[in-house]
Amino acid sequence: MSTENKNRISRRILVADDDPVIRHLITSLVEKEYYEAVVVNDGKEAYRILQTDSNFCAAIFDKMMPHLKGLDVIRFMRTEKRLNWIPVLMITSEQDLRLITESFAAGVTLLLPKPFTTQLFLSTLRLLLNNSHREDSGDTAANISRLRYHRTDWR
Hints:
The chain is an alpha/beta fold. It has a single domain, classed as Rossmann fold, CATH 3.40.50. The protein has seven helices and five strands. It is globular.
C-alpha cells in the first residue's frame, strides 16, 4: 500500500482479546483517544476480518487467545503486503525472554505487559500510533525496528 493510501486510512484500530474486561478497558481507552475500536473476541475473528479488511491504522492483540494466538495473526499480517505496514501492540502476561524474542521475530511492534496502568497503556498506544502515522521513508520494517519493547520495570 502506498504512503498516500495509508494517510487516507480511517482512524480504526483492530482489537482482539478473549478477556471481556480487558476488551472493554482497551476499547474505552482507544475511543478516549478518538479512534474507532473494531473489537473481536479471539484471533480467529481477527484473522477473518483481516482477510478482507486492511483499513486499520493499528492493531492490539492479546498473545494467548483461543482458536488462533495473537502471534499467529501477526505472522499472517507480516506475509501480506496490504497488512504488513500496520503496527501491532501485543499485550501479554508472559515474562519469558525467549517468548518475548519470538514475538518481535514474528513482527510485533510493541509489547505491553499485564497488568498495566491506564497511563502506561495510553503512552504505549500513542507511541504505536505515532509509528503508524509516519510519513518519512515509508519503509515499515525500518520504522518498526526503531521501536523497542516498552517495559518500565523488567526485573
